[in-house]
Amino acid sequence: SYRIAVFASGTGSNFQALLDAQRKGSLQAEIVLLVSDKPNAPVVERARNAGIEVFLFQPKDYNQREDYEREILSQLEARGVDLIVLAGYMRLLTSVLVAPYSGRMINIHPSLLPAFAGKNAIGQALEYGVKVTGVTVHFVDGGMDTGPVIAQTALDIQPGEEEAALTERIHAAEQQLYPAVVSWFAQGRIILEGRQVTVLPLR
Ligand code: GAR
Fold first, then answer.
1. I need a labelling partner for 144 at 20 to 30 A (CA). Which of 20, 92, 98, 109 fits?
2. ipTM of the complex
3. Smallest Cα–Cα separation from 101: which of 87, 80, 82, 88?
4. 5 near 84, Cβ under 8 Å?
């Protein structure tokens, strides 16, 4: 079956949603590895509890990003990983990983890209005062949150909405969208041509 590696640095609510979808049989893919740069992150605990293999590294142990990415790449190749799923992995990637996984690496971001790339996208959207925000799943191309868009969910920001409430609604939208996109991928329904992405209907 389709084999995925999830990269994550934090809470892991998206990782958990992917795992739950796998258990229900709706992911149509198997999470074979969690890659994390944060040994104490809750996501690592979630993976261990689920019996999923974890590859941990500490960036400070390396001179440059390329060095740890080469190690990650060999871990991915050893497990025959078909798709990299970034889920709150808060590091930029180099061509060491981006090139071999071109068209096979996706990210989720808590805004309607290209608005509010980078860190704290939810806070940025509230600060700017936009009335609509949302969630984007996109291919990864080496820039920060810049690759071709696969799918988006829009959410209206409610008058006076606090950051905590909006964050909760964004996370709920992410947990719906991300497992769905992974399943489309596993079904071969996502076609990438230049920057244009087409999602083929179920047949
Ligand atoms: C998610 O909201 C994800 O969209 C965001 O980090 C959070 C991770 O939550 N990613 C980015 O901001 C990437 N630029 P999680 O650890 O609970 O899945």
1. 20
2. 0.98
3. 82
4. yes
* Tens digit of each residue's pLDDT, the chain (203 residues): 899 999 999 999 999 999 999 999 999 999 999 999 999 999 999 999 999 999 999 999 999 999 999 999 999 999 999 999 999 999 999 999 999 999 999 999 999 999 999 999 999 999 999 999 999 999 999 899 999 999 999 999 999 999 999 999 999 999 999 999 999 999 999 999 999 999 999 88
Say if CB 138 and CB 148 are below 8 A apart.
yes
CA of 8 to the centre of ligand 1 (A): 8
Q: Whose CA is nearest to atom 12 of ligand 1?
A: 109
Whether residue 11 has its Cβ less than 6 Å from ligand 1:
yes
* Residue 160 assigned ligand-binding role: no
Residue closest by Cα to atom 6 of ligand 1: 88
Tokens of 194: 């230049």
pTM: 0.97
**172-199 burial string, b = 16+ CB within 10 Å, else e?**
ebbbebbbbbbbbbbeeebeeeeeebee
Please list the active-site residues: 109
- Are 1 and 79 contacting, i.e. CB atoms less than 8 angstroms apart? no
Atom 7 of ligand 1, nearest CA residue: 88
